[in-house]
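Internal tracking record. Fields below are filled automatically when a chain is submitted to the structure queue. Please do not edit lines marked as system-generated. If the sequence contains nonstandard residues, flag them in the REMARKS field before resubmitting.
Queue: standard
Priority: normal
Entity type: single polypeptide chain
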Amino acid sequence: MATRADVARLAGVPPSSVSYVISNKRKVSQETRQKVLAAIKELNYHPNYMAGALSTGQSKMIAVSSATNSINDLQIYSEYLNGIIEAASKQDFLTLIVPHQLTFESGRFETLLDSGIMAGFIVLCEPKLNSLSSKLKLRDYPHVSVEHNPKRKSFNGITVDYEGAALSAIEILKSHGHKKVALIYSDEISNTFLSKVKKLKINISLFQIENYLLAGRNLAETFIEENVDSTAVICLSSQASFGFREHWDFIFGNLTTETLSYITVGSSEEVPSRSMTQINRMSFDFKAIGSQAFEKLVSSLREPDEGPDNTLWRATYFEGSTVSNPRAGPLSNYHHIEGNYPS
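SYSTEM-GENERATED OUTPUT FOLLOWS
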């Protein structure tokens, strides 16, 4: 494996000139730059960031970790990650992805933190505030958290305002005349949110389910079998949302919008399919959130004594065709087919 010294010898320049070209921190002549770049290409040289961190005390690597448990979570995670990597590369930082399970292996994880190769950590959407963020805080380790409606308020990072988006969705449905709304969710919702809902004077039925396609499909079937009287649904569970919607479309077909108004909360602004453009949704720009998380981390590295800085990130409303006035009468008045959902 080629070293920086090998590059310097081939280019006929001092090793310091190679460092200046790579870091771009000092000006070098165009001739020297071209020689160094040609040598780097010929030797297929890759900088040793660990050695750089040890020699300068200033790492140019950040770590990212997240717990994901569904395909849709992975889609959102990839958008967060794309935003982080893109922003990091513009400032010559590398991004290290740390498997979430490693953070529970105290010996190996402590070794990683003590190695000095990382400048800081970005923690994405921990389901509970009990593990990685707490460990990093106890060690006073530079980190930024991206959290969905956390129970704590004083932390350095970004709050993705799912509950605020849900409140906006309720207000939209209320403006269409809906009085009975079902709220489907997976993560815990706060008492503050429930108090705000109560002030809207609308009947809310709560359904907490696992965030999986099948769970959403099963709940849709329960709505039909039990003739649930809610005339609208708000879904905060991304993957379950797709399952619920798929099954409802399968059963009612052209009567879908007539039988149930529907708003999904927490989808990406980068809509992956044409069908999603027909759904009213409160969406987030996850890539932009990832980019801002990196900027916050860099800012905290430059000014470590500034204290926690939390940004509230609100959703953008996209209007489709799945919100209408409340249906006339109970679900049992509407014809629907019998049969099994296609596998």
